[in-house]
Please model this.
Amino acid sequence: MEDIIDLNVTALTRLTYAAAPAFVARGVGTIINIASVVGISPETLNGVYGASKAYVIALSHSLQHELAGKGIRIQAVLPGATATELWAKAGLPYQKLPSSDRDVAGGRGRCGAVGLDQGELVTIPGLHDGDEWTRFEDARRAISTRFGTSVPAPRYRIGSPASH
Model:
């Protein structure tokens, strides 16, 4: 677990914050973070791995917001299962995954470059309908505008009787 956190959270954060100031000083730069589709669905695999990839997505979103006006491009690439020996170390050799759910290392990763060229902030090679991601992000952003109230929702019956 510590190795996963060290790689996917600590190293990614340190590398990002080592590169970003230089990019800002130059007024141009691109950071591509490799997340995973399990960052959106962390319950799919090991909790620490899914949570660490969710962190990659969250950091990428935050940096997109913070650095876009400074000429810095941030992209998150969310590949699906990639055929590597890491699966065997986790107890499930990739050969046991359905062939339609796995790709050779780097195969889908090349989609990241195409997605970047197309201006995608998040590239999901296995998602065939890109508008689904747009709708998901629109819904996420819309609901987040309603989190800031200090008044508890009536369903919690705190401060006022719940409406029935």
